[in-house]
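<goal> How does this chain fold?
<body> The protein record starts here
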Amino acid sequence: MDMKTTQYIRDLENLKNKINDADDEEIKNSLVKLLCVRTAGLLEVFLKTRISEYSKGKVPKEINRFMTAKFKDITNLKSYKFIDVLSSFSEDWSSKFNEYLEEHEQKKSSLDSVVTQRHMIAHGQPSNISQNYMYQYFDDVKSIVSFLDTIIR
């Protein structure tokens, strides 16, 4: 896995530790929401970084620049959108990821839930995401990123 994604995950693990150490419930809830937003961001950071790395040396720099710019604004990567983006590059990647999600329903649910919750938090809507659910989402998203790292080659 690339260094940027690895560091991002490490930062999120540190945030989890801060949540565990927090005594005040209001602070803990705010940190859980931050973990949610940053976990959804992990998906975006990973995809953008991985696609950029993949295209370097394989396509002319102008095409790489275009692809980087095109994917710069990708957000709200629910499972269907992730599959769609992957299919833009490779039907093989898309089908493997789709199969993975079908075999791992909980991970698919976590992916979609963390993105939905992030959207609600970012737009000021009420969110009562629990610490336990968020930890499950985070672990599942890390697994998804690890799997994607094996197929985007």
